[in-house]
Specification:
8-stranded mixed sheet; binds zinc ion; 433 residues; 18 strands; 2 domains; globular; alpha+beta
Length: 433
């Protein structure tokens, strides 16, 4: 299995770092990012016992640092710069975090405060064994190793990749994808690295004025739902994935050549199916945008998908990212830009009256029912409409100026000024075949 067993000592000869075409990012956490596409390559890390101890220590200090920052800033402030200013010195004094990890911990604390205020209202507790890295605290090398800042010295370790490099190699080997915000997770005695990459979006000029936007919500049961009420099921993808996992576990750790082959064939079958399905869905989304004369397609920002979606694990994170890039490239051919907007509240806000409440949504039943105006809809459909509306200028959820002025629904357009207008009453209704 791969090259995982070989451990490279940090002081061993360093390979060439991946060449960056742009200066490394510094401070782009969770900002609705319209300029870059982001992907995550999930890999194991092969670490020596000594380095594992260093990483565990980092995880512990990171949790402690985030908690200190939250406790101090909770009643005071919530933007990253404010929380950093208020708590950075204390984190440096009271934890073993290095300077950049202390900065990142203050930012993580700020996000957690903001999110908690948006939702539960209770002060966040940092319990999950996760640490954020950026390009100042990690370096990715061409030889499939990564060096990481710890509370002690920097360590260098192998990425555990499949023998053929796996899908991760697509990003590692492609100079158009540069390393970006990443996360280390410690689970069941193993380190898993969510290696982030980013690349400039396909060059499509965003519309400057008056654009209509198609919103798309991503999920597990429905892979995608558009603001025009088109549903793309994700059920078969889930079944195929489970089937693959059954093959994998039935082969167990036999490690024989025929077991390897069987597993590889099952993996290839799954990959072909996923690819085909994602192309269908991507084509369907872009066709929907064209049918409704949309000049912009909006997704909820993927970085938060795993936080917002119960049951969406690494497989779905990977699916969503691939789907997004398929849509981006297909849409670019039609000169339609794709943007990601901040998805917060989009599943809780009533598209009819704007009332926002966590209990508007029954996650189990996939039902959205507004506590205030009684409007009801499929919850993913309601979310897709809100995602579109977030792009619309001066909308209550409005994102940065994207030149969008209306959001496309199945039966009409919604604008901040005029509310809902049925297509039949528009001077130029969308073309239909
Ligand atoms: Zn309502």
């Amino acid at each position: 299995m791969g090259r995982g067993a070989r451990f490279v000592h940090p002081e061993a000869q360093l390979g060439e770092p991946k060449v960056f075409k742009r200066p490394p990012e510094t401070d782009t956490y969770n900002v609705a990012d319209t300029d870059y596409s982001r992907r995550t390559a999930v890999t194991g890390l092969s670490v020596s016992p000594t380095d594992a101890e260093r990483l565990r220590e980092l995880v512990a200090e990171w949790k402690r640092g985030c908690q200190l920052a939250v406790n101090e800033a909770w009643d005071v402030c919530h933007t990253r710069s404010e929380v950093q200013q208020l708590t950075y010195d204390r984190l440096r004094e009271e934890t073993d975090l290095g300077s950049q990890h202390a900065v990142l911990a203050t930012h993580r604390a700020a996000e957690a405060i903001k999110r908690a205020r948006d939702r539960s209202g209770t002060r966040p507790e940092f319990t999950s064994p996760t640490v954020a890295f950026d390009t100042r605290t990690m370096t990715v090398f061409d030889d499939r190793t990564v060096s990481l800042t710890t509370t002690d010295e920097r360590i260098r370790c192998d990425l555990k990749l499949a023998a053929d490099g796996g899908y991760q190699s697509r990003y590692l080997d492609d100079e158009d994808w540069e390393p970006a915000k990443s996360g280390l997770h410690y689970r069941d005695g193993e380190f898993v690295f969510h290696l982030g990459f980013r690349t400039p979006r396909p060059a499509v000029d965003p519309p400057t004025e008056g654009a209509t936007v198609l919103g798309v919500d991503l999920g597990v049961e429905n892979l995608a739902v558009t603001s025009t009420a088109r549903f793309f099921s994700g059920g078969e993808l889930g079944h195929r994935r489970e089937e693959f996992e059954r093959v994998r576990s039935s082969l167990g750790a036999t490690g024989t050549r025929s077991a390897d082959r069987t597993l590889r064939q099952a993996g290839d079958r799954l990959d072909r199916f996923v690819r085909q399905r994602l192309h269908e869905v991507a084509n369907g989304i872009v066709a929907e945008a064209e049918e409704y004369d949309c000049e912009l397609i909006a997704f909820g920002e993927l970085e938060e998908a795993h936080d917002l979606l119960p049951g969406a694990g690494a497989f779905h994170e990977w699916l969503f990212e691939r789907l997004l890039s398929f849509v981006e490239y297909r849409a670019a051919e039609r000169d339609i830009p794709v943007v990601e907007v901040n998805p917060e509240y989009t599943s809780q806000r009533c598209m009819e009256c704007g009332f926002t409440h966590p209990q508007n949504r029954d996650v189990e039943a996939h039902q959205f029912e507004c506590l205030k105006c009684d409007a009801s809809a499929h919850d993913d459909y309601n979310a897709a409409k809100n995602i579109a509306f977030r792009c619309v200028r001066r909308g209550p959820l409005s994102s940065r100026g994207l030149g969008a002025s209306a959001c496309a629904l199945q039966s009409g357009l919604v604008t901040p000024d005029d509310g809902f207008t049925p297509y039949a009453e528009l001077s130029e209704p969308p073309k239909s075949d």
